């Protein structure tokens, strides 16, 4: 049996990178009002980019925050889901980063509204289960660095 035969939709593979961004005791989520979703910043890795380069670029594009210090590699995971008429198999790479400049963010793509909230609130508000795992990993790494 072919892997494609097990799914209802055509399979699309994607590789993305993103970040769990902290500032003091808060973590950054992006609110997408059109869908009422809270998400972490992430996006596709462009040709020639490393996962870390893509994560920093995507955080900047989606939130406007570009003055970041990378603190830890949170690893990778593969998630699967159906969207529209495709079955997505996506490999995700995430990094823990700390905001270095507490000022206002620079220009962002306008699609998302950056929202800072305590870890426990973020864990309740974030929309997707896979991103809850990144928050858990990010908080564990953050707590370890603070000890």
Topology, number of strands: 7
- Total separate domains: 1
Do you know the CATH topology?
Nucleoside Triphosphate Pyrophosphohydrolase
List low-confidence stretches: none
Could you characterize the architecture of this molecule?
This protein has 147 residues and is of the alpha+beta class. It has one domain (3-146): Alpha-Beta Complex (Nucleoside Triphosphate Pyrophosphohydrolase). The chain is built from 3 helices and 7 strands, in the order E-E-E-E-H-E-E-E-H-H. The chain is globular. It starts with 10 loop residues before the first strand and ends with a helix.
Short structural summary:
This protein has 147 residues and is of the alpha+beta class. Helices cover 26% and strands 42% of the residues.
Descriptive key words:
147 residues, alpha+beta, seven-stranded mixed β-sheet, 3 helices, 26% helix
Question: How would the blueprint of this fold be written?
Answer:
Elements: E1 11-23, E2 26-32, E3 37-39, E4 42-44, H1 51-63, E5 68-83, E6 86-99, E7 113-118, H2 119-125, H3 129-146
Parallel strand pairs: 1-6
Antiparallel strand pairs: 1-2, 1-4, 2-3, 2-7, 5-6
């Amino acid at each position: 049996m072919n892997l494609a035969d097990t799914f209802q939709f055509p399979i699309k593979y994607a590789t993305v990178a993103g970040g769990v961004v902290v500032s003091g005791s808060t973590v950054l989520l992006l609110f997408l009002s059109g869908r009422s979703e809270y998400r972490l910043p992430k996006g596709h890795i462009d040709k020639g980019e490393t996962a870390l380069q893509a994560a920093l670029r995507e955080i900047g594009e989606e939130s406007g925050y570009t003055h970041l210090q990378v603190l830890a590699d949170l690893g990778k995971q593969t998630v699967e889901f159906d969207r529209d008429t495709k079955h997505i198999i996506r490999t995700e790479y995430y990094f823990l980063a700390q905001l270095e400049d507490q000022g206002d963010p620079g220009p962002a793509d306008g699609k998302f509204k950056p929202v800072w909230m305590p870890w426990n609130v973020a864990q309740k508000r974030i929309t997707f289960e896979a991103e809850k795992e990144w928050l858990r990993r990010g908080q564990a790494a953050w707590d370890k660095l603070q000890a």
